[in-house]
Design a protein that fits this description.
Elements lengths: L1 E3 L10 H9 L5 E2 L16 H10 L1 H22 L16 E5 L1 H10 L19 E5 L9 H4 L7 E8 L14 H5 L5 E10 L19 H16 L3 H8 L11 E5 L2
Parallel strand pairs: 1-2, 1-3, 3-4, 4-5, 5-6
Antiparallel strand pairs: 6-7
């Protein structure tokens, strides 16, 4: 599992997700994205302006996509390299990617969401990835949803919250459900956690306390493990629990929907 942080984050973020996956037997590798990581706000006089400028810079979007492709290449190379810590520990048929916010944007495009203006020669969708997890998914910009998600053929878990507003792109909690609604060619799962804000999933303590608040972390990690077991391991019990609404995982007020399970 490759894990991508959000705007202004770092590979130290989303630790609860990596730890939960590792405890369940998955290899979890956290990426860091220069140009849209924590370096953009450290020491900035106007932190919000610095974050917004980085989010709107198309070069950072292209770099994120290149980072994702490179990470898959490098993971598979190292898995075959003698003496490497990853050697013999990675199943190339069960690779997946997860991300929060800008990281979710990356996951969606790695899975096949169309890029406005064309794919710029990038080898996408990334067919070597067999599952995706988008925390705070992003609605498409510049394309209607039917077109934007028409090429997505990979199972995905979408996790958001009833208070998941985006201050940079202006996404509403309802907008976060759009990818789930319009992806039609692969099984999809949507979890909406009651009260969860955009910062609830980041686990980025350096940004401030509310970005490291753990209320929703255990539920999110448990959903991720259940989803990956169902998709990558073909676990019938896990698939059945998702189809039944994951009652032992979610809390009162949470909502779970499935398509194709």
């Amino acid at each position: 599992m490759l894990i991508s942080h959000g705007l202004g984050g770092s590979r130290e973020g989303l630790a609860y997700l990596g730890q939960g996956l590792a405890e369940a037997g998955f290899v979890a590798i956290h990426l860091q994205h220069p140009g849209s990581d924590s370096a953009i706000w450290r020491g900035a006089a106007q932190r919000g302006h610095a974050l917004a400028a980085a989010a709107l810079d198309v070069r950072n979007a292209l770099a994120r996509l290149q980072d994702g492709i490179f990470a898959v290449d490098e993971l598979l190379r190292r898995a075959e390299a003698g003496g490497d810590p990853l050697a013999g520990r990675v199943d190339p048929e069960r690779l997946a990617m997860a991300g929060h916010s800008y990281g979710a944007w990356l996951v969606q495009h790695m899975m096949g969401q169309r890029i406005p203006g064309g794919g710029r020669g990038l080898p996408l969708p990334e067919r070597r990835l067999h599952a995706g997890i988008a925390l705070s998914p992003s609605p498409p910009r510049g394309l209607p949803p039917q077109l934007a998600f028409a090429a997505v053929e990979t199972p995905m878990l979408h996790v958001t919250g009833t208070a998941d507003h985006g201050w940079v792109e202006g996404a509403s909690p309802g907008d976060r459900e759009i990818p789930f609604r319009f992806i039609a060619r692969a099984p999809q799962v949507l979890a909406v956690l009651a009260g969860a804000a955009h910062s609830a999933f980041a686990d980025e303590g350096a940004v401030g306390g509310r970005w490291a608040e753990p209320t929703y972390h255990a539920r999110t990690a448990a959903l991720a493990v259940l989803f990956l077991r169902a998709v990558l391991e073909k676990d019938v019990n896990a698939r059945g629990r998702l189809a039944a609404g994951a009652p032992a995982v979610l809390a009162p007020g949470d909502r779970l929907e499935v398509k194709g399970f």
